UniProtKB/TrEMBL annotation:
Entry-linked Gene3D superfamilies: DHBP synthase, Threonylcarbamoyl-AMP synthase, C-terminal domain
CC annotations in GO: cytoplasm
Catalysed transformations (reactions): L-threonine + hydrogencarbonate + ATP = L-threonylcarbamoyladenylate + diphosphate + H2O
Subcellular location: Cytoplasm
The YrdC-like domain, residue ranges: 11-197
Name of this protein: Threonylcarbamoyl-AMP synthase
UniProt source species: Alteromonas hispanica
Binding site for ATP: 56, 60, 115, 141, 149, 193, 228
PANTHER family listed in its UniProt record: SUA5, THREONYLCARBAMOYL-AMP SYNTHASE
Protein's UniProt keywords contain NAD: no
Amino acid sequence: MQTNTSILTFPNDLPRAVSLIQSGECVAVKTETVYGLAADASNENAVKAIFKAKGRPASNPLIVHIASIDDMEKWARDIPERAYLLAKHYWPGPLSLLLKKQPWVSDTVTGGQDTVVLRIPSSDDFLALIASSGRGLAAPSANKYKFISPTNAEHVLASLNGRISAVVDGGKAEVGIESTIIDVTTDTPLILRPGPIDHHSLSVVLGCDVKYKNDGGVTVPGSVLQHYQPNTPVKLLSRTELESKTFSFEEGVISFSPMSLSVMQDNHIQLPSTPAEFSQSFYDALHQIDKKRLTCVFIEALPNTDAWLALNNRVSRVAAS
């Protein structure tokens, strides 16, 4: 594959990736959720390079990825005990903690807010890059702003080829959707972005109610209405509506239910019917069908249950107009 962005693999190319990070460059690397666009979170120019590559608004904060729980105190202050409890239980893993930031942390990282979001990812590649570079790494998803999140290196190149220095090809991201973000600075912990870890699990670990915040307030990654979108227009239809619809040859479908449709076979992607397996393949399905340059893609409406809440969050933003 011809590319202006270098394709690296670990461990052989780890020194090259470390050199790029320490020089203030951006490197895309797999986390267990999606591929992240990593740069030195303590380097103002490096962080600005993330925003430039993505075309991301400066008001949209970034998650800082760290190597150990001990690193929390470098980036955050007034850390409540519940934050340590969650970190010890879920890290490394797809949970991000919103905390009060240390005064030195750049407003460029936090979108001008007095809070910072921290996470330890469970990706070996990402952890190796953090440890070897000796840096906390700011890393939003490695795609152009509002475009489909990437779950493999090919997705990254489709969006950012020539706009970043390198992508580390670590294979497919295992989880497939972005981390849960929880605000632990309030009396009642609040989930600001639903993700792989739900409020039931968090409530059990904390021994208190955990709620979802739906009325604005603090800005976090993934909170804009239109997000994760392909170039192809998207509409949501129920299973009944899909089965009764007559499709043109320029229309496509992503579904999870087994059904007989009039859509062209090559334009129909059927995903697994469990939330975890659906998550692993959803963004890839969007990437696949977007390459067909269809006039519209119809997504089967997901079940309205707690198990599908995070995915409904993503799908609603994909289909927003």
